[in-house]
Amino acid sequence: MTKEKRKQKLVANVKENYRQVEQSIVNQLYMKHDLHGTSIGSAREDIWAQLFEMIIPKKFVIEHSVFIIDSEGNVSSEVDLAILDETYTPYIFRYGRLKFIPIEAVAVVVECKSQSLEGITKWCDNLMKLKTADNSITRIANQIAIGSVPTQKSTCPIRILCTLKSEVNEEIQQNFDFVLLAVNDDMGGRIDIEDNRGGNLKDWFRKLNFHETNPDKEICNEKLLTDIKLKDYEVKDEDDTLVSLLTFNFQLNQLLMLINNPLLFPHRAYAKLFNAERMGS
User: Contact 254/233 with Cβ under 8 angstroms?
Assistant: First the structure.
């Protein structure tokens, strides 16, 4: 077998393995659904978490059933899965299954439960109210940095909905950046990926690093991101069929690299929050 043939076989095998993983995940989701109806929240979270554990780099942690908090005391609704970088960031509180995580560390939030439009809207609104603080203190290279770094002032987590296709309507889907739909039909089990934001990497860079604000000065090479779109990361078979999970792997991890590191943690801001409670203000 020639080198080129071996390469082609390897690529084909990897694509096929992704197809089989999709099939396995969908089979598990529908089996749980058929056996237990709607009372399968934690089991469904576990199955979807398997998918993210397969593609998320080890620097990130996947936590189940968390609440996200900011230094102003705002708290999210319960989040089924949160993907966070805990390298520099302490948990605000973690004991058993009860976890409060600061917004500065969270890269991705995942909703796995079936909810009404009203419930989903409230879930998203509570997340959007969370504000990152920028009064951190840390050592970088040869100096002490006080405040945010020039390339990252605030953030907003990537919002992902994971669900069975039969359980969600288009209006609910529009509240999320990505929707992963488990489909089990005559064509077999698969996961369809809906990218609701589209756009280019510059748009994503601004959302993930300058949420509701702007850089103080021009960011070197940022303009180069304008011509690069998430669609450029699509992987397809010879018949032009999208290899959904492999595509999502490349897309999501590219976005995580735009964050690179979590926001520097503002310890004083959170200390002030809990002292304000003591002072009654």
Answer: yes
